[in-house]
Amino acid sequence: MDLKISYPILAFVAIVLVIPGTQVVFAQSSQTSSTVSLQYLNIQATYASQVLPGDSVVVHVQANAKSSIELLTLTAQVYYADGSSLRQLVTTTLASDSYVSNGNSISKDIQVTVPQDAPRTSLFALFSENVQSAYYGYSYYYPAGYGYYSNYSYSCNNYYCDFYTYYPSYYVSPYDYSSATDSGVSSLSYIKATTPEYSDLQSQYQIAQQQLAQSQAQNQQLQQKLQDAQNTNAQQSTALSNMNQQLDTARTMITTWETISLALAAAVIILGALSVYLSRRRNTINPEKVTVNQQ
After folding, report:
1. 140 CB-near residues (< 8 Å, 6+ apart)
2. What is the spatial distance between Cα 275 and Cα 286, in angstroms, rounded to a whole number?
3. Contact present, 177 and 13 (Cβ < 8 Å)
4. Measuring CA to CA, which residue among 83, 86, 93, 90 is closest to residue 63?
5. CATH number of 2-138+172-193
6. Cα distance between residue 207 and residue 218, in whole Å
7. For the chain, what are the domain ranges?
8. Whether the model pTM is above 0.85
9. d(CA 291, CA 111)
């Protein structure tokens, strides 16, 4: 239910929220209480300090009588401001046709569901009392058959009264009634809804989260490629190491064979030289034999 906010209502809400009769007290944890002083009732409301759109909040209301009254109705209406209008969430009757003695109290819970599209604002309740009070007096009565009379005589200096009297009984009964109404406003839970600025920031944050997720996925892919390249490089390094080992082995074998070849060549040369030397020496030692052989 949407209601246009008139200036008297806005002024009334603002005044009631700041006058001494309306008092806000922060209790333990997330519970808060506020009091409203009406003409015949003191009303205390206890509720959650903060709610979110879509939440259900229970408002506990306790009304204490300042005097003995006949409470015709005690109602509560819960609203919140949405732009230039008031939206009514709940209207309920807390008590009706009840006699409340001075100091006694009435308690009741109000269930309120916050709309999903509620803006960032506060709930507030309008409490209204309709009270009938009675003025009491004494009523006298004489039982049937009894009366009152006097017999005066002037035989004395003043006068002589010969009379008898029945003292009447009395009872207390109301002889007048008066009706009165009064209203007061109490602040309730604060609706911690998102603002347009927060929605924009949240949208930007979600976009940044998506970009971050994409970057993380790309980074993971690059890390996987790097790991694959490192694995390939490790395999190639292992193969190159094996090839180097084989090359070193081949070089060692070649050096060994070269040494052996040089040794063999040297041996052949030495043997050839030795053979020539021995042959010449034999020829020198046996010249005659050589000459004979020539003949």
Report:
1. 168, 169, 170
2. 17
3. no
4. 93
5. 2.60.40.10
6. 16
7. 2-138+172-193, 201-286
8. no
9. 151
Order across the sheet with 41-48: list the strands: 22-26, 31-37, 41-48, 56-65, 105-113
| Cβ contacts of 61 within 8 Å, gap of 6 or more | 43, 44, 45, 76, 94, 107, 108, 109, 110, 127
Q: In sequence order, what DSSP letters do the residues of 152-185 get, joined into one string?
A: EE-SSSS-EEEEE--PPEEEEEEEEEEEEEEEEE
What is the C-alpha separation between 184 and 231, in angstroms, rounded?
79
DSSP 53: T
pLDDT at 162 over 90: no
Q: What is the pLDDT of residues 52-111, one digit of tens each?
A: 999 999 999 999 999 888 999 999 999 999 888 999 999 999 999 999 999 999 999 999
> Helical H runs in the chain?
7-18, 196-285, 287-294
Cα–Cα distance for residue pair 281/290, rounded to 1 Å = 12
How far apart CA 122 and CA 30 sit, in angstroms, is 15
Dihedral, CA of residue 11, residue 15, residue 16 and residue 17, to nearest 10: 110
Q: Answer for the pair 52, 84: CB distance below 8 angstroms, yes or no.
A: no
Q: How far apart are CA 276 and CA 284, in angstroms?
A: 12
